[in-house]
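We were asked to recover a plausible sequence for a given structure. The inputs and outputs are reproduced exactly as logged, with field labels preserved.

PROBLEM: sequence recovery
POSITIONS: 211
GIVEN STRUCTURE:
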């Protein structure tokens, strides 16, 4: 961002890659969107609530009250998809926008100081209607909380090391946490979305890992 804060992170692990959009904030690392090459993506409102969620089957668009405004299926599931996609455009903030045009055309654009960068995070994942997708292993509420607190403690330890190594507040406030901690935080948020837990607990876990 023009402020110097990190805006977009692209990671690669083996044959998979991810794109993370962060909010333009100095003291916190708030994730605004996560796009993955396996077809899973999530965008969040500024308060951390889910905005758009996509999988290899389709996606849904939620309003800020948590109500589903729109739902669609990708056309690779059947010859005649019963809920097609109408193109979607959202602005995560004044610099980052997302266009969802098709399963293989999910565009993330960054514009600042007269320059623009575009990333296509769409993918063409074919799903056989005769096969059943593996379900994620269920996790209990206590396990999710323990994972969230573990990440938070590691984040605090990393900040403490930054304070020791860089006594100047201006220096360590600009430091980003290690990539593995950011990845773990994202995975915990994904587990919260895929697990049947209360909205209150889900909000608490988000607050812990994004503190």
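RECOVERED SEQUENCE:
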């Amino acid at each position: 961002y023009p402020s110097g804060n990190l805006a977009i992170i692209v990671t690669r692990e083996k044959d998979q890659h991810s794109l993370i959009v962060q909010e333009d904030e100095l003291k916190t690392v708030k994730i605004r969107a996560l796009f993955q090459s396996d077809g899973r993506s999530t965008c969040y409102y500024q308060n951390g609530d889910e905005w758009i969620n996509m999988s290899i089957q389709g996606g849904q668009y939620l309003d800020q009250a948590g109500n589903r405004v729109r739902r669609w299926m990708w056309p690779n599931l059947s010859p005649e998809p019963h809920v097609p996609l109408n193109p979607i455009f959202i602005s995560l903030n004044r610099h980052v926008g997302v266009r969802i045009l098709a399963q293989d055309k999910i565009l993330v654009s960054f514009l600042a100081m007269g320059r623009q960068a575009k990333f296509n995070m769409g993918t063409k994942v074919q799903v056989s209607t005769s096969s059943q997708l593996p379900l994620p292993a269920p996790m209990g509420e206590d396990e999710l909380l323990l994972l969230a607190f573990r990440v938070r403690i590691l984040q605090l330890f990393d900040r403490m090391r930054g304070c020791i190594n860089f006594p100047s507040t201006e220096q360590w406030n600009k430091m980003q946490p290690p990539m593995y901690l950011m990845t773990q935080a994202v995975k915990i948020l994904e587990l919260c979305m895929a697990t049947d837990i209360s909205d209150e607990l889900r909000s608490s876990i988000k607050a812990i890992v994004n503190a």
